[in-house]
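Your task
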Amino acid sequence: MVNTSRHAIAIFDFDGTLTVKDSFLHFLVSVFGRWKVLLGLVFQSPVLLGYQLRLLSNEYAKEKLFGYFFKGWSVSDFQKTADRYADWQLSDILRKEAMEKLEWHKREGHRVVVVTASMEDWLRSWCLKTEVDLIGTKTASSEGRLTGQFSTKNCYGPQKVLRLKEKIELSAYKQIFVYGDSRGDRELLQLATHAFYRKYN
């Protein structure tokens, strides 16, 4: 039996761990519709192929795709769109068993943190309402408009650990629960006293 003291923190990856599908693509479809997104993916296929062949980094491919769709958007319009998605559509892709475990941690009095490569913009409202902390990739802007680039490194792999440690003093916690589902969570899982890879119990 695991001792669930209040000196515990639960760290969840988002896409694929708390959700059944990728929130970036789900967000894109909610904003532009399926056909415009498919057309955009065709235009960006050289970049996506380069990523699949591991010739291009996850960060480069993701930034190019984000920039293709959102470069030039006003920050206020983008945030309103992201908040609307978080409030009305994000729940459609949440994984039931993962959310049950997240709520269990909250009932136990554990601090809960979502650490994700997804942009904070479309998760911020949901995390506030769910009462969990958020660490994710941040979008860059200039003169009130999105540049199509990121203002932080893509919060993936080693960056997840770096960003987490910048925000939270992990030595304050006796127990560290980590939930992940991909190679991008490997370094995060190595921090855990209780690691859960593609499982919740």
